[in-house]
User: Fold these one by one.
Assistant:
Number 1:
Amino acid sequence: MKTIPIRLRHIMLGLFSSLALLWPLLFGTGGTTATLEQVFAFAAFAMSYDLLIGYTGIISFGHAMFFGTGAYVVAIALARGNGHTMSFLFGFGLAVVGAVVLSLLVAFISLRIRNAYFAMITLAVGQVFAVMAGSQGLRQWTHGNDGLTFSVPNWLNGDLTLYYLCLFFLFLTAVFLTRFVASPVGQVLRGIRENESRAVGLGLGVVQFKTLAFVVSGVTATLAGGVYALAQSFVSTGVYDVSGISLNVLLMVVIGGVGTLYGGVLGAAVLVGVQNLFSNWSGWPILTQHEMLWFGILYILIVRFLPQGILGSVVARGGVVSWRALPRFKKSQT
Amino acid sequence: MSVVVTLIFNGLANGALYFLMSAGLTLIFGLLRVINFAHGVFYLWGAYAGVFLYNEFHNFLLAILGGVITGAALGLLTERGLMAKVYQDPTRQLLLTMGVLLVLTELLKIPFGRDPAGATIPSMLAKSWLLGHFVLVEYQVFTLGMGILVYVGLLLLLHRTRLGLVIRAGVANPDLVLARGVPIRRIFTAMFMLGAGLAGLAGALAGPYYGSVTPDMGMNMQLNAFIIVVLGGLGSLNGSVLGSLLIGVATAVVGYYAPSLAVLAAVLVMAMVLVVRPAGLFGEKEVA
């Protein structure tokens, strides 16, 4: 039973990766590759988010704080350095350091007591970043609500290179996170998700492991934000938006499938694809101008009736342990 | 000096609004053990119901009642229709309430649009008095009075009635209350409706208080309420009173000098308290 889904997964993976690799060669660069670059950046972001919600069982409602910081730090470094390669490297390096510091700070005030605190505090901190990015005091750095345009290094300047950079980044993220969740640390994280008291009872430093997951997820999300900024050559306060980014990535992961890692890729493709489609389409305003309403309803239905999401449900059919079975553990313990 | 007095009074009036939000949030958590991420949307719909009714009928009492009823009705639908179905799974309850916030906020934008809509203070509450250099605004006094009224009402409910006894027992041990033959599920629903109704009341009061209503106000108010309950300690009513006043004054003072930094100030106050007391001022020590 168990070999079938794995083989199927490999076939699907191979199919989609070769399609992604060949796409610009077959269909040329243009509107679609720009959309695909966004999909790749958001897919990596969604995978980093799934590490928290799907593998550790903690929910952040402010993950835009990392995505946005990555985008802004890379953008500001490149704008200041006139697109020099050194400023490119410096920007990504600084973004990673910033992400580590930020995630440690947030983890310190929010992860020590209760998982619900984490959700509330990340939401609040995320909002602080959104306000700061648009504030007058930082205007000379961020250009406030106008947004910031910058040029990428010369060797990156070209639709094809940028496309393959985004794809390569998604590939690296996927490999890294797959290895990470399969590692002993990843097993501990899943143990915490399934039964936290038992993990404490086994003498595991639950807070430290959660903090580690948050740092890894934050750094990955920051890099995704940086790559997103590169793909756009522009960054605005929208990258910190609560509903535009933080809740969007939640919808991507939930719709795609919580705890499957690759579900986030599927969710990102669906959401970014539909959002781009709707923004270029003027008919049916109730559908195209309020797409978050329909995605929100879909999200509620999935959480209520299909907690494994689309991909998760497909995989579960193949005989892999289902996520829905988890609450039974919790119930028996009290 | 008059600036300081004005700011502190503004802060107290802000705090009264914050308290109406955070009281519901903290009571719901105390009993149902779930953070209601849809709380801001009850407030938002309460605000729009209040403004709509006041513009139609010019009756402020009706507007306030409409806000409360809108909030409570949405609370009933959310609790019965969604949360009760995934009762044993706190993570999914959390995710569902966030979905309710998202959907209802977006739904409101279809008839009312994304732009702010003006809200007027009813003429009977629009007076203001000059005391030396200090201006006392009647609507702020009214808001503060409502906050105190609700606090006293909640204390009486919790400590002087049989329902309050059941609620406090339910906070301590819901299973045991159920074993005594009390239908705890119904108490849960009632508590959720009470909290949602208070959020609706806060919304109906907030429209005239801030002079306009926008679709963003729900999320912004919810953030303040979260900061307050985390700071005061989840589940503690007195913690949310103290937290509301603290955050109310802090946002009033910082907002006077740098309006955009008010939320930063609130988060910093919260972070400082949490570093010293990780469970909040009056929070119970519970290992996650």
Number 2:
Amino acid sequence: MAANEGQGRRILITGISRFLGTGLAAILERHPDVDLIVAVDRNGPVRELARTDIIQSDLSHSLIRKLVRKLDIDTVVHATMSGDTTRHNVRQLHDANVIGTMNVLAGCSGTDSPVRNVVMLSDTAIYGGGPKNPAFWAESMALPATPRTWYERDLREAERYVNDFRAMQPNTEVAILRFCEVVGPDSESLMTEYLALPAVPTMVGFDPVLQVLHQEDALDALAKATLMPKSGLFNVAPHGVVPLSQIIEMMGKMALPIIPFAGQEVFVQTALRLLRRQFPSHFLRLIQYGWAVDSHLWERTWGTRPQYTALEAAALFSRQYRTRKLQEEQTPYVYEAQLEEFLRSKGRQHAKDVAKKELEHQGGSHRG
Amino acid sequence: MAEQTVIGRKASQSGAARRTAPRKRTEERSAIFDMFRSMRSGLADLHEQRIRGEYTTDDFGFDPAWTETILPVAKLAYDHYWRVEVSGVENIPLEGGALLVSNHAGVFPFDAAMIKVAVLSEGPSRHVRALVADWMFNTPFLSWFIRRAGQTLGHPDDTFRLLSAHQLVLVFPEGIRGTGKPFSERYRLRRFGRGGFVEAAARAHVPIIPVSVVGSEETYPMLGEVPYLNKLMGVPYVPITPTLPLLGPLGLVPLPSKWSINFHPPIQTDTLVSTGASRAADIMDVTELVRGTIQDGLRQQLMDRRSVFFG
């Protein structure tokens, strides 16, 4: 922060093709203290953004290195971690998760690096599901001796790089946020796609309790971590838990207990492939055993508290889910995109002023 | 003399049994009707909420309303099958956390269910949260059932979390060493874990209430176990009882032994366990104290019991 004292924040978001990255950029755009938002991702954002500069590229070490130094980036938000196999295969995801993280951190490291804050989005899936799990995992507890799924292993490797980076860069605030499942009308995760199935397949004889965080709380947590940098490892989750069967009931769907609890790799994956749905192994463990985390450290550190409990988040999501068709029908505001293009060509300062005015004009209709 | 009294008792008992048999049968039948009636009305109430998902569970997935609806089944076994006699319920606190520590026996953990019913119906009508072994959470249906009914894993952090939330927690420090022991070893307490339960109670500043249960050992007299099959099924043991493989599924019906449950006076961990260097020794001392109390209680209850099935 010292390098940018008195100036606005200049933020790089790695990974904007998923909901959390795009949502964070949208919040930062409305924040008057943020001078510059740059996003790097191979794919574009999930919705239109006003003043975020997007570089469509893979996360290569040299690109990140050049970007942070030339643009004097002070904060890097690393949001590529994903276990979502519906869009990419496992090999691609492993490259994005582990090699991507390694490249981003390598680009940010060095004594000449202007980066003072790093926020890494991790996943509570790192704890994994199993019969020996405690009811709530705390950050201080030791992880199971061996990772049981590829995603757990990816997350561990990526977090290890982040911890190494923290050790090498003592002047940098490095926060790892382990998010639980995020639900909401815009969130496109494995969980929301799973719950959107016409009949929801469940594991025979298992009904785990889960934590689902509403997207508003998730974005709020992410924005706070970006704008008020802290160092450490934090679980981000709502209060309480909710049984999977209850979420399905609230969604007004039927639970189909068809996934056999044994021989999963053989039978389940074949069956799901026939249905053209493929759930990764960590997700199957989630719907078999579930896991929940203790998020008090995160709440204390940022003096925050999630707006919705797990039950309330699930209830709100189920209500919002029913009107999703109406939301989809809303055509994007084309004129605004053209205006933004014009404003951007006229210079950044001007665009920022417009964004500020827009913020004032909209008043309390937006958070952040 | 001794023989005469025995004969006399037998004669009078069989006579009494003959006289009261018809009435007893109608009583039991009405109890079953009552159970179904209360369950049906309870389930009808629940159905409306359940279908809409309008209910709340606690942090451990415990659903009290649902548990109270299925409880009449356990109450029926409690009243009419095992005819549980309870003493010392006044030792259970009306509020605040406490750790109930009990001996563990019988192939299936019916003792946990009976202690839960005893506290709920004859004690301070509070729900008891039992700590269970991890293999149960790995078993289909059972994992769903026990979580809904308020049980959680015997993890030190879970225990502490429940006790600090002012819950009554039930723990069986013997674990499967207790339930899986052969019939010839009945009512002989096994090793009481490593004193982890004392540590948890001391950390949460709650008392320990020793509980001794008699009758549970005779529900399934375990003569031996089937080797290898347990590994295949993912359970700790596959028992052989006089009826179990012999009568097929009918062998799963537990024997109707007469039960007694005694809740002993609380042991204050706050005063007995210091925070200093001698903590480890204090914890072992309290573990031995609790174990001794339960063993003495069992001895007393067994001395008072004349017949396994009639009490």
Number 3:
Amino acid sequence: MVEASGTLTRRLLLWLLLAPALVWLLGLILLPHLDLALLSFRERTGPGEYAYSLAQYRTFFAEPLYWDVFVRTAVISLIATAITLLIAFPIAWTIAKLTRGRVSALLFAVCLIPFWVSETVRTLGWMILLRETGVLPGVLVSLGVTDAPVEMLYRDATILVGLVYTSLLFMVVPLYSSLESLDDSLIEAAYDLGGNGWTVLRTIVIPHAAPGITAGCIVVFMLTLGNYLTASLLGGKNSLWFTEQIYTQFITRFNWEQGAAFGFLLLLLSSLMVWIGLRLSGQKFSDVMSRT
Amino acid sequence: MIPSLPRPLWLRVATIVFVAAFLVFLFLPLVTVAAFAFNDAAYPAPPWQGFTLDWFTGDESKGRTGLFKDEELMGSILTSLLVAAWVTLLSVVVGTTNAFLMERMRFRGQGLLSLLMLVPLVIPGVILGISILAFASRVADLLGDIFGWEAEFLRPGLPLVVLGQVSYLIAISTLTISARLKRFDRTLEEAAYNLGASRPAVLATITLPYLRPAMIGSAAIVFLMSFENFNTTLMLVGADSPLTVMMYGRMRDGATPVLNAVSVFLMVASAAIALLLMRGDNGRR
């Protein structure tokens, strides 16, 4: 028995198991983020000299470009999350409720396949499809819709397509698992009692799927907000995405203080949205995360 | 199908059309990438010029550098494999110790710790990258000032990439392995103890074999996610670029179909891992 083997060995074992967890959480998560916060609150006053100040945050609010890009990134991420939800919900519903057995399993597997492939590859696909010399502009010309090939890359709508595409999996999976656990007889009972499709959806299906919807939206919003690859490749050289600003400050300009402040603002926005999502749906963080 | 649901014909047709359109949307980019890997043209763009394998096997004699002759690209694949191997090893080992820590131990602050273990999943990858970059270089500076050490591994490079990826992938392996350990029937262990087995023997012959599927499953997922990681890697990379970073750089400059060839290779490799995992699943049932 475990309990019989003495408290000393037990304590030793506890510390042995605790050590890797603490090294991970302290060394790679807590301390680096604390350091990032400190970094964002200081200013270079001379060669090798630093003082604590709010200068980095002042720059953010004083410079319209940074502020605009921040808001733009947040708004596009919200829109992308909403569109992803609207597309993924009927699909998850079809897999969970309208199909059975093999068809359902096959459809689910087919939906997952593209996400086994790297985001780089998927983005390359969209670039070949959408650029001026690409496939879709060519198709549009041969169909007579446009006279000359149209550049379809480097537009906000293109970024949205790319972001929604990348996010679908993270919405379909939690939606599916929450819809699958919904008892069919509840839906039937609601219809028997005279409900129509809309009221059933609003009063039975959506409340039951709320944890899945929350989990999906939180994860998708966070991933789109922090996306770099899709936004910068489909949006072009000036796609004005906030993670690009962070990259520019950190890597190109080597202005770590400013980059740290930007990073912290993004983290704050992302955490705020997670918190709002949890509050709105009355979910607990640990429940939601174990669903995804 | 819920039999008694009123489903008019138009709704059924609409559902089928929607699902079909969705599937086209999902597979269009992948099919496009794969098709243009075999197009006999200098750029991955229409029209179709005929079938060729140049973008896989071509060399200088043809004026086209195919994937297998592109040393930069092949090198970056090796780099990615190396990083992914380390990340997988670390994530599965720490994920397993974490599972035992959370499921088998009781201690003060356990609730807080289990919450903390989920936090890396909601931090954007770019921020994980910059925070580890800044912290590692602060530690390296300190080591240099105090002991005069050159802590080269804390400067941007592959060791930092491994640390950056591990920082959130451990959370995933911990979740998967803990979930299986939670379902474990403790009486199996107790029976073994009653029969006189020692603690290491029970661990090696009963508990770990039970956890094996979760460990293999999370290893595959972590390996894949490491191989495909871009956000965190981009911030921490040094002179050696892993594949995703290398591809990104070339995509910005407008690349030849050799990138499509790499992509086909990646698709085949991912499919192989997926099939292996599925067979493993079926074998267990």
Number 4:
Amino acid sequence: MSEQESQFILILFGGIFFAFLMSLFVVAMVVLHRQRQVQNRQKLTQIKDENEKTLLNVENEIQQETLTQIGRELHDNIGQLLSLAKLNLNSSKPEKQSEGKEYINQIIKEVRTLSKTLNLDWVESVSLDDFIRQQLEKIQSTGFCQTALESDGSFLELNKDHKLVLIRVIQECLNNAIKHAHPDKITILVSKNGTSRTIEIRDDGKGFDTNHQSQGSGMSNLKKRMETIGGKFSLTSKVGKGTQITLKLPF
Amino acid sequence: MMKAVNLDLFYDRLGYYPLLLVGFAIAGLFGYLQLSKEKRKNEPLKFCLEILVTVGFYELVATFVSSQKIVNLWVYNLFNAHVAAVLFMLLIGSFLKRESHKKMVNIFIVLFLLISLVLHLTGFVHYNDSGEYISFLNTVLILCCCGLYFFELITIDEFLEIDPLKEFSFWASTAILFYFSSSFMVYISFKYLYTYHLDIYYMVIQIPRHMTLLCNLLLCFGIYSPLIKDRFQLEIIHV
């Protein structure tokens, strides 16, 4: 084989080897990209499953809360009304009987209202501002503490899932404030800025040291729940200076 | 007295290679003019056209200059090693998603032009030499730009939604990578081969020539892709 022929063969094989290496590189890039796509899809499915699970939990908790409330209403309100109706209807006096009938009407009204809260359709019909107002009125009516709501209506447009999670988180925050902080006043501020809307829940209660690790998983649960709807949960508190919880949700 | 222009030799030397490149440039220009105003603003398409026109133009000029018995290396040094190389870097830069990577490509370009200027001013390289050093430099930088693109392809979330095999940026980067890496050895051994192994030189010079044709064909196809999509509702490749 002449020198020229051997050089030709060297260049030819060198070229083939080089082309093979380059092709291998590009194929490897495509394979790596595909693998990342698959991993990403699995991750997305996992996040979706977790979100669905969280929503289901939230719905269950709200239903549980509603059932407790219904039990209380049946015992404290409807039970009392039924006793009064029975007493009045048993009387021979016509005015007492008509009073008994009025009680029956009132009971029917109360039962209708209660039955509406049994499924979660009320979530769609009530605005978040109305819900917060109802919750604060309930707290104030018990004489536990003063309450205030300042809202610019930023959360009037919400889908059902977002509303469910926010309702549950707000309920939980208020329950915590009542249970642990013993405040004189609870204030809720609803506002917005350019990119997000915010709910601030402030109390002037005992407060706590945020550096101290809590035993329970309440706060991390609330944080996770806000994350499932693309929101953020943050908390600031100092001993003796109350607590401020901020719930942020992008538009 | 002015030397007469030898057009006969010029026509003789117009082989399939410069003619095809000029054809791609004209086809690219025609396709680009058919695009809607919005599509014409698409950066990669603009750079594709600029590359096609530049390559077609300098090949024609180089053929003309050589037909007048004048050394035409300055044409390749100026247009191929500088203008086209910078346009290729800008094209890859337009495919990148991260601002930091885009900045890096711009730094590469400035660095390349500065080094080239210094090398020319100091007399280390001449505008009419075989241009090994400049070719080495621009090829390394273009390969780095391709590396940035492939790095983004496998690391950035925005690329997760796309199918790379249907993406123009992927095929263009692959073609540029193949073109410059396969031409690399030829360009830097240009002087040696031309001086000592002329037959091998003529053999290996076909590699960058055919890679240029392939690359320009792909860029031309990239310009026509939005037109095909609009006319036939068929997206062969996404630009």
